[in-house]
Amino acid sequence: MLVAAAVCPHPPLLIPAAMGAAGLDDAGLDAAAPADAEPDAAGRDAAGRDAAGRDAAGRDGAGLDRAGAADAEVRELRACCAAAVAGLLAAGPDLVIVVGGAAQSAVYAGHVTGSLRSFGIPAAAGSAEPGGPALPLSLTVGAWLLDQADEKRARGASQPASDRPGGRPGHEPVGRPSHGHRDGHGGGSSDGHRGGSSGGSGDGHGGAVPWRRQFRAVASGLPPAGCLRLGAELAGLAPRVALLAMGDASARKAAGVHGAADPAAERYDAEVAVALAAADPGRLAALDPALDDELMIAGRAAWQVLAGAAAGASLRGRLHCAVAPYDVSYLVASWDSAAAVP
Q1: How many C-beta atoms surround the C-beta of residue 142 within 10 A?
Q2: Please, are residues 325 and 18 in contact by the beta-carbon 8 Å criterion?
């Protein structure tokens, strides 16, 4: 039975190492640059800009401002994803299933790992054991989000409350949690009851996580009926199932003029946002797969798997954020029995 769900996008830029986020503070400023630096003898500030905002070559800061706004949206996106995944795990699932689009459908059970090195990012996610099958991008980013949540939970539970760092979502170190994700059986079947990459049976006090994992790649072109059937199947794999659906909204604006409106893409993104905020499986089920290529949608199949899993469940939704850094739309949402409707 589905007891909770989270929807997150899967751009590699969610990983702080992808954008050098470790060198930025919460305001997106260079942590090494003093905020109150005085102008130099030429009247320029620490960034080399004059009182009119022009640099030494006379250029204004429009491009820099756009980049700064996009970086701020990325930091917001990371924080929202961390909150959504933390809420997913707080529902107390027996089984956490990560679903994401890929070139072809596949079930990843036992020890799995994913890497972002092909994107130039020194990050890995999933099982600590080498040699397992490689996850596609959507599931790699999903595994990374779970790793970060597991690690934060283990770190916080093992420290006295007075010693726990505040931490900032999205600023966690890159890598896999030291406790791994073992089921203790060296693999197993792919039915979700044994062998989905497991967190073990920890005691809830900093040991192995008490839920099992399974990763499902869904062929991007899978028709809605197939997605809905798969979702219903996944919801029945355990008494308490939590589903993390990984998928990006429209990227068509990124293929056009920067900042230009794209009415068709915006209508589509708005429809998905409404469906996620309302925890409305029917709206997600009605999404037209014919628009996937036209609007450059990467999340439709995963969202419709969620719709199938949620059919008949009593869930409430929360849309954490809807942002479009670099003209690609990303949506983050939570569905659970206790979520407040925004």
Answers
A1: 32
A2: no
H-helix or E-strand containing 146? Answer: helix 137-157
Q: Could you tell me the two tokens for 105?
A: 């459908």
Long-range contacts of 127-132 (CB under 8 A, 24+ apart): 127/176, 127/180, 127/181, 127/182, 127/197, 128/176, 128/177, 128/178, 128/180, 128/181, 128/182, 129/180, 129/182
Q: Model confidence over 236-292: pLDDT tens digits? A: 999 999 999 999 999 988 776 666 778 999 999 999 999 999 999 999 999 999 999
Compute the distance between CA of residue 105 and CA of residue 218 in angstroms, rounded to an integer: 4
Q: Does domain 2-12+72-336 have CATH number 3.40.830.10?
A: yes
Place of tokens 């979520």: 339
CB 329 within 8 A of CB 267: no
CA distance 217 to 220: 9
Token digits for 218?
A: 């869904």
Q: Is 148 helix (H, G, I), strand (E, B) or coil?
A: helix
* Contact between residue 189 and residue 195 where contact means Cβ atoms under 8 Å apart: yes
For the record, the structure tokens of 330 come out as 């990303």
For residues 159 and 144, give the distance between their C-alpha atoms in angstroms, rounded to a whole number: 23
CA 190 to chain centroid, in Å, comes to: 24
Kindly state the DSSP code that residue 38 receives in the 8-state scheme.
Answer: P
Our CA angle for 131, 147, 113, nearest 5°, is: 15
CB neighbours (10 Å) of residue 12? 18
Strand 113-115 and strand 106-108: the pairing is unpaired
Provide the 8-state DSSP code for 163: G
Ordered DSSP codes for 104-119: S-EEE-SS-EEE-GGG
Q: How far apart are CA 25 and CA 9, in angstroms?
A: 23
User: Quick check: pTM over 0.70?
Assistant: yes
Confidence at residue 272, expressed as pLDDT on a 0 to 100 scale: 98
Contact, 124 vs 180, CB < 8 A?
A: no
Distance of CA 319 to the CA centre of its chain: 13
